[in-house]
Amino acid sequence: MPDVRLSSPQGKWILLTTVLGSSMALLDSTVVNVALPHIGRDLGADLAALQWTVNAYMVTLAGLILLGGALGDRFGRRRIFVLGVLWFAAASLLCGLAPNAGVLIAARALQGVGGALLTPGSLALIQASFHADDRGRAVGLWSGFGGVGAAVGPFLGGWLVDGAGWRWVFLLNVPLALLCAPIALRHVPESSDERAHTRFDVLGAALCAAALALLTYALIEARTASWAVALSAVAGAVAAVAFVLVERRGKDPMMPLDVFSSRQFSAVNLVTLCVYAAFGGFFFLAALQLQVVVGWSALAAGTALLPTTVLMLLLSARSGELAERLGPRLQLTVGPLLCAAGMVLMLRVGPGASYLADVLPALLVLGLGMVTLVAPLTASVLAAVDTARAGLASGINNAAARAAGLVAVAALPLLTGMGEEAYRSADAFDDAFRPAMLICAGVLVAGSLIAFTTVRRPAPDCPRPECRTHGSVLTPPLEGDRTP
């Protein structure tokens, strides 16, 4: 049984190393968008390369995150966590030294592999180490401090880009890893799951990542209308079907399909796909809009996006309490509509836009919408499955959100007719940004309608979220295994 107390020196070291590890991945998910215009200019990259700079990371992370958690259970959570930290740092170093866009994209894919190992591992270490009386508070602190890291990300990224240069956005991970890994090896006890075995769904993980990569390639390169695009689309669809078949027939699938027999679970994941597709597309394009069209520096653009994360940190716990009293349907219906209104308000953000009059109102409405929906979304996911499968359900929901975001980043430029050099022209980018915001708003309205017609009040004895405070704007919080 775990027996480390949060108030002990060892407890503080465990909390520190898990926060450092998870913050590395959270920082990268928020700071890279701010650096994209500078990366493009420095490496002579077109818009497709910038899309891949974001999506290469998300493809491997979304495809492998469930497998990463299983590896920790079997081979040791500390061991896999440290491996993920060091892998992430090595890939970050390669990103920072990349001589061209191709190397950067490949390094970003490797970063995603490291993220898939360390992201579930950081929470698993807390659950496996702390005494039951302290576990809830430890998870809350881990989630809250991680949210602070996510909030600092855009500001820190903008400061680095405008100062030392965009490469330091990635190189910063190296000293963090060199601090995190020794602390973990010295102070974090090793743990594993005695019920885990050596059979892993490597084929399922590979098919999932391949399907995401091939379909993403088809969407990003569709404007060329080449045979390669058509073949990629077909191969991606085949890989997706093969993934479903493997998960259905496999003895130990990483994503057991019977979990979707719960109509509530399936419906809430549809809502997740809608809202996080909109969020992923928004934060990718908004960081570019503020720099390319409005003309702000990377620091100003990154700082401008802070209100959404700050609102999440301040109000997410209260939103969760409200959902427990009222049930989740009202908030899951109203929240996406508020977010859609924020997207529509972004139509006012163009050349010469004022932060106080144009940008801030849109971000405040968007942030309030995110606060309203994220906590009940997680609660609904957990309530739709048995207590023993809470960690699995949360992992699937988290992966779905990441997959939705990468599809949006790939598809929105195609749907809005954004050309390869659009981010170099204020007029061209602004012309595409406006319909993109309307598309995002429409997807959010669809999510609201799905929630209103499908989400029901959970049973009184269902699992409750442990991560009450949440700051990531691109993914829902991860919840851990509830099995004793």
Automatic annotation (TrEMBL):
Q: Where are the transmembrane segments?
A: 12-36, 48-68, 80-99, 105-126, 138-160, 166-188, 200-220, 226-246, 267-288, 294-317, 329-347, 359-384, 396-416, 436-455
Keyword vocabulary terms for this entry: Antibiotic resistance, Cell membrane, Membrane, Transmembrane, Transmembrane helix, Transport
As for membrane topology, the entry says: Multi-pass membrane protein
Q: Which GO terms describe its biological process?
A: response to antibiotic
What GO MF terms are annotated? transmembrane transporter activity
GO CC annotations? membrane; plasma membrane
Q: Where in the cell is it found?
A: Cell membrane
Question: Which Pfam families does the record cross-reference, listed alphabetically?
Answer: MFS_1
Q: May I ask which residue range the UniProt record assigns to the signal sequence?
A: none
Domain Major facilitator superfamily (MFS) profile, residue spans: 14-459
Give the primary localization class.
membrane
Full protein name: Transmembrane efflux protein
Organism of provenance = Streptomyces coelicolor (strain ATCC BAA-471 / A3(2) / M145)
